Amino acid sequence: MIKPRTPPGVMELLPREQIAFQRMLDTIRRNYERFGFLPVETPVFELSDVLLTKSGGETERQVYFVQSTGALANAAEAAAGKGEGGLPELALRFDLTVPLARYVAEHEHELTFPFRRYQMQRVYRGERAQRGRFREFYQCDIDVIGKDALSIRYDAEVLAVIHAVFSDLRIGGFTIQLNNRKLMRGFFEAQGVTDAQQQALVLREVDKLDKRGADYVRQTLAGEGFGLPAEAVARILDFVAVRSTGHADALARLDALGQGNATLDQGVAELREVLALVRALGVPESDYCLNFSIARGLDYYTGTVYETQLDDYPQIGSICSGGRYEDLASHYTKSKLPGVGISIGLTRLFFQLRDAGLVAGSDESSVQAMVALMDEAQLPDSLDIARALRAAGINTEVQMESRKLARQFQYASRAGIRFVVLAGEDERARGAVTVKDLLREQQYEVAREELASALRVELEQARVLAGR
Q1: Could you read off the pLDDT of 261-280 as tens digits, one per residue?
Q2: Which CATH architecture has domain 369-466?
Q3: Could you read off the pLDDT of 220-260 as tens digits, one per residue?
Q4: Superfamily (CATH H level) for 15-39+94-355
Q5: CA torsion sign, 159 to 161 to 167 to 169?
């Protein structure tokens, strides 16, 4: 007999936890749609040569390739199933950005620009199995893609979406930190770091500041790999230590940077416009700030960048990140498609929130009512009650076998079902049913034709109290 076991690197939940996870997914989707984003889904696998166009060897080592057993059994089919470089023809997606780039390039003439898309699907990476790192996980992305150009105003709107999502998730106070890569590049140029490749390397090291500390970054930038003068390193560390406290302070911090470098000036101007629009969008100034150390390690970010942290749990790290890029799909089309977007890694976030005690399995099932079965002869009547409840929008289960009532109540309690409906001979004679509310530990009788409306009132009150 084979021992049942979950593959390493995946998160498999029990039903109560899955309900809590699903509600988070629903909350994110609801807020994405409130801001006018349209749903997109792409295949779980892509053609290998498309998927790996921009990736290096490290990404390729983490990719899961797809190979059918039929192709393996037949040498001719196996040869036909190879893509460029001898790789299998298909591979599982490792993020949602590359599939988006392919999607927009392929359907460019069928889409309306700016194209506002959200995508919430699983992605796959060959991560080393360890706690908190997953090989299969949900990403929840939004992007606004422009044709030839895209206003900086969308960068502010994306920040407002982040704020709406995490306010609605109700997982505690949070701060959206933002910066601009142009501002950073301009400052580095003023310190003598003018080579684009060296700037990218400096940005990657600066992005490690919160995790590794100032001493580590100072030693790295002054070491053999970079060899920056001690004075330049000190100025860079002073610069990236800037954190604003409130809207007026953020503007003052930008004013203090001075003028003279065209790239830096452009970054300052873009941040000022984003800050002005963020306020107009109604985001409280206590929930966002400037953080000049945020760079985002990915090279394709060119302007605004975001990271979001829980105020009381900074050890969790960024719970939502993203930024502005100049050209999404340059490998697939000659059109210039700039954009801005963010991503929430929901599987990792849920795991960490559960570890921190901020989320738990749902107290309630997605089943809202259960019709008990008093004896076999009552089954048609029980089914009729359930049919009426379902028609009224109440998720209802029927006990299909008669058992002792105590066991039926125990089942409902363990399954998280709040209402148990009983219709014995006495209730039927009075045209009524008995409702046992397991949450409030109350029992009451209600006219049968009023059952659905009575339960709807109770469920709506519970929904309002829970803030859903």
Answers
A1: 899 999 999 999 999 999 99
A2: 3-Layer(aba) Sandwich (3.40)
A3: 888 877 888 888 889 888 988 899 999 999 999 999 887 67
A4: Bira Bifunctional Protein; Domain 2 (3.30.930.10)
A5: negative
